[in-house]
Amino acid sequence: MGRKKKRKISKKLKNALITIAITILIYLLSKTGVLTAIDKAIAETGLADIVDTTDTSVVSTKPTVKTNTEIVEKVAQNIQIDSNKLNILFFDVGQADCILVLNKGKSVLIDAGNSGDGEFIVNGIKALGIEKIDYVVGTHVHEDHIGGMSYIVDSFDVGEFYLPYNETTTTTYYKKLLTSLTEKEESIIEINVGDKFSVEGANFEVMAVDHSEPENANNTSIVLELAYGNQKYLFMGDAETEVEEGRKWNDVDVLKVGHHGSNTSTSQEFLNQVAPEISIISVGEGNSYGLPKDKILTRLEKIGTTIYRTDNDGTIQLISDGTSNEIVKIDVNFDSSQN
Ligand SMILES: [Zn+2]
Fold first, then answer.
1. pLDDT digits over 33-43, tens only?
2. How far is the CA of 95 from the centre of ligand 1 (A)?
3. Among residues 124, 167, 221, 298, which one has the fewest Cβ atoms lying within 10 Å of its Cβ?
């Protein structure tokens, strides 16, 4: 007992000495200004932000170095669409979603990045020779999904436009979108679970949506399943576990992981049902939310799915003949907050 006590005292002494040393170090650092610089760096990189929500109403203030000309050139040089096959482009839009599905000259757009990305996305899609988007889907009203949507409506001939009903949203980008739709004499079409639409044999079905304006807009997400040949693709938007638990899911080949790989989504039960061969995570490099979460990555790895991430792999192009899927990684970035 005596020895133990002695050890405790010496430990206390040691701790006190360490505290004194740290205090002196902090004092010296603050005198030299090093600490202020570290604080500033943390604030700039957003490391101080530990809130896990992707309802980002603040557009990044980082300077934009990319130009539209560069985007057009990069897309023209690096993206090759196989017009005989199904092409799905998961655009690298940083901490946001933007997915373009192309099939035999027809197109479906699911989300349009943050507000600042809108112009880049428009120029990128135009560089692919596309003038009309047959179906435009805004999964839900958060900025990282529909921030750039007004640019899409302004710049393309839009066939049908889908978005969950949301009257209480007052954000600038949402109002801008409503104005753009009015100017184009387009209106938001309400789609419901079980509704279907297709482009040249690529068949979409609505698996989930909520028009009742729940507090958590993520759970209003329009979730789409795409069937092409014998392949199935599931686009989760930011739908969370509550939605995952709300129905039975088909076994799919490719999963666009829900909510950027956040802990709120991709439950084990859900994953057991969908069991994708390929999982795609749309996520920003060094994002302040720490996404994708390790727990989700481990869960995905355990079921043996191959993971692709826009932060590591850039824009991801999936090409399918209806029986298998080929992945091409493309170094084109549409994120206005990154170089
Ligand atoms: Zn999101």
1. 454 444 444 43
2. 7
3. 167
